[in-house]
Amino acid sequence: MQANPYLPIRKVAVIGAGVMGAAIAAQLANAGVPVRLLDIVLPDKDDRNFLAKQGIEKALKARPAAFMSKKNAALITPGNLEDNLGDVGDCDWVIEAVLEKLDVKRDLWEKVEKVAKKTAIISSNSSGIPMAMQLEGRSDDFKARFVGAHFFNPPRYLHLLELIPTAATRGEVLDALREFGQKVVGKGIVIANDVPGFVANRIGVYGIVRALRHMDEAGLTPAQVDALTGPVAGRAKSATFRTADLSGLDIISHVAADLQKYSGDDEDFTLPDYFSDMVGRGILGDKSGSGFFKKTKDENGKTVILGLDLKTGEYTAEGKAKSALAEGLKGKPLAARLEGLYTAEGPEGDFMRASLNDGFWYAAKMAGYVSDSLADIDNALKWGFGWEVGPFETMDLLGVQRVIANLEQSGKTLPPLLQKMKDSGAERFYGEGEITTPTGEKTAFQAPYLILTDLKKDATKVIKKKAGASLLDIGDGVLLVEWHAKMNALGEDQLRMVQEAHKQVQALGYAGLVVANQGENFSAGANLPAILSMAQDDDWDEMDATIREFQNTTTSLRFSPHPCVVAPHNLALGGGCEFTLHADHVTASAELYMGLVEVGVGLIPGGGGTKEMLLRFTDGLQPGQPLLPAVQRAFELIGTAKVSTSALEARELGLLRESDTVVMNPNLRIEEAKRHVLALAPGYVQPQMRQDIPVMGEDAVAAVKSAVYGMRQAGYITDYDVVVSEQLARVLSGGVGRNRGQRVSEQHLLDLEREAFLTLAGKKGTQQRIGHMLKTGKPLRN
Question: Enoyl-CoA hydratase/isomerase domain spans which residues (predicted)?
């Protein structure tokens, strides 16, 4: 097979160091790619690279953080378009993120064509100007290497990358950018047609505009609409109007005006007068400090969210308004929530039905125009706007024929796709191994990555199943333990399924085991209600047995006769972190918020986490180096409940090893984990527990107590923090009565962990902390 001449992509140039350009550069640097960031020279600045340097500085200060580790900023080299344009010549991909003005872009491409190498891919990040229009005057070769690459802001957190080929774009160019974007940059790729708004903005902005209209008709407020169109509807927490504030009302106004100019008479992108008035008054959302919502402080210094009264133009305490309909649907499966929203009576039901129907109608109308794939349209809304399911997937959940009947009842003319669905009587766009095309035909369809919910449709792939966990055959001789409880809190179902998995691997001759899931979080930690219940009932024998079982299960990932790979994502806290620490190998999502946070509820890590961090940090010492730095590092990490802000930071903290893998694209995490199991399986030798861990004994306790005393005196910690810290110090010391330089076993440290955990669980202060956390979701500083 002939190699793609446009791969590999080793170095990228980003032209335009504004908010978007700098953020794109930061995400490329997160992926380990060197970037040349260029902008114009400002005549009033001595530093000719001022704008590029400013872009990097702003990205470093951005919240949410643009960089996964601040160290990544070193991969970005600032420059300017007068002195450094020639540097583009050694870049494999050139991305433009300059002003949304056609003449500016055309002028830039004329200059770039003179210096870019003949195998460089050229891209525009324009969100509105069609790609083909930018290429006037360019050579055929340049046009063949040109493809739109539209990132969504912020690029680190929004998964979508729309690739927009023109009629002249070579297939190899599109293939190269799709592969690089998905595997290296970590993006979900959608192929969009070169039409105004492309896919996500075309349909998403239409939805925002229509929501404004239906809100007015139903007599609702922005806060009430956001309560209905957020997580309860399977949408992002920012819902409708918070999303508008984040995006910038001026941007939405500009995009809506452009789309109205290019759309037909039946595509109404006209914004209400009050929206235009807000933009005219400089009320632009977060960038201006206020939009539909505004944050302020009350008399006690507590943050309060105010909502804009659209009739008076004043901000009121409406910012946190709740919806009785939404509240009643919380906790139910997505399909049930959507059913409840779509069929509800009253103003809230009228609003949701009208808004959803408009979205369904428009998505069907755009099928074949903005994209030739219904799956790409669904994915664009999921990855660009944070929806759980796209418009066609939503129609499948509600029943396509019912949606069609509602649309006809509301007086809408069915788009050709829905007319064909009506004529055929089909209830779903997605079937087993097939999908409907924009022309209403059926074609073969397979998701581009492993989806566990799809896998489980094949009963032969489900080896065991409990309410909170499943054991699945993911192919090629690899089993997978999937947790699927609320927040994936770790209780009996989760532990027993890991234990069962080890038995099945050995009994059936599998190569090894993966522990992973595709829920919102890998695991938020242990089952706190169960711990509190045992403590309050003085059931210490049961708690002791529970902790032993927990330790035996976490450590089984290290000491089983077969390889075990853990693939965490998002939250991996407490017990979730401890499972990860004991894997043979970790394939972590780049977005990983990992830490041992037990001190927040008055406990210490009891599932091997304390032991593991002491072992790792002592192993990391140079020969002859004193043990105290390792003890201090472990104490600081655990005692301050430090949580990584990314997988890269987890590696810097020591929670991940240098040998562990960071996967930029979370959708590829499980397949990467499976690959590592298969790589480790041949000749795998079962590890044995260590017997040679050096400890400091009483000296460590004294050193930690001295530090804790100083922190208490300075007011950094509370009296009960001191109690918890002393128990943590006892474990990290290797136990009372030990001397510096003595060596202990892993099991000895596990026993100390268990004893400390039981001691703390019996104290009133710990029980108060656990109870407060369960009630409020926040730590108690007692």
Answer: 484-610
- pLDDT (tens digit, 9 = 90+) per residue, 465-492? 999 999 999 999 999 999 999 999 999 9
Backbone Cα Rg of the chain: 28
Q: What CATH number belongs to 450-597+643-687?
A: 3.90.226.10
Rounded distance between C-alpha atoms, residue 45 and residue 544, angstroms: 67
Residues ≥6 apart with Cβ < 8 Å to 469: 481, 482, 483, 484, 485, 493, 494, 496, 497
Rounded Cα distance, 177 and 95, in Å: 12
Q: What is the pLDDT of residues 298-341, one digit of tens each?
A: 888 788 899 999 988 889 876 567 789 999 999 899 999 999 99
Sole residue written with tokens 């160019």: 173
Choices 1.10.1040.50, 2.40.160.20, 3.40.50.2300, 2.60.40.1120: CATH for 200-369+379-444: 1.10.1040.50
CB-based burial, 677-706: b 16+ in 10 Å, e otherwise? bbebeeebeeeeeeeebbbbbebbbebbee
Distance CA 317, CA 86 (A): 55
Query: What pLDDT digit, counting tens, does each position of 750-770 carry?
Result: 999 999 999 999 999 999 999
Helices (H), 296-399: 324-329, 334-343, 346-366, 374-385, 391-398
pTM attached to this predicted model = 0.94
Per-residue pLDDT of 84-105, as tens digits, reads 999 999 999 999 999 989 999 9
Q: Fold identical between 12-191 and 450-597+643-687?
A: no
Dihedrals phi, psi of 337, to nearest 5 degrees: -65, -45
Per the structure block, which two tokens stand in for 748? 């000895």
Q: What share of the chain is helix, strand, coil (3-state, %, to 5)?
A: 50, 15, 35
Q: Return the C-alpha torsion angle 259, 263, 266, 270, nearest 10.
A: 30
The CATH homologous superfamily of the domain defined by 12-191: NAD(P)-binding Rossmann-like Domain (3.40.50.720)
Q: Which of 769, 354, 386 is nearest to 601 (CA)?
A: 769
Sheet holding 76-80, edge to edge: 76-80, 35-39, 12-15, 93-96, 121-124
The continuous run of DSSP H or E covering 546 comes out as helix 540-559
∠ CA 83-86-89, rounded to 5°: 155
Q: Is the pLDDT of residue 741 over 90?
A: no
Angle, helices 374-385 vs 391-398, to 10°: value is 110
Amino acid at 748: H
Cα separation, 110 vs 101, whole angstroms? 15
CA distance 678 to 477: 8
* DSSP per-residue codes, 693-718: EE--THHHHHHHHHHHHHHHHTTSS-
The answer to whether the CB of 152 falls within 8 A of the CB of 178 is: no
What span, in angstroms and rounded, lies between the C-alpha atoms of 660 and 227?
40
Rounded to whole angstroms, the Cα distance separating 415 from 228 reads 27
Number of helices (H), then strands (E), belonging to the chain: the values are: 30, 25
Instruction: Give the C-alpha separation, 82 to 111, whole Å.
Output: 10
Domain boundaries, the chain: 12-191, 200-369+379-444, 450-597+643-687, 605-633+689-782
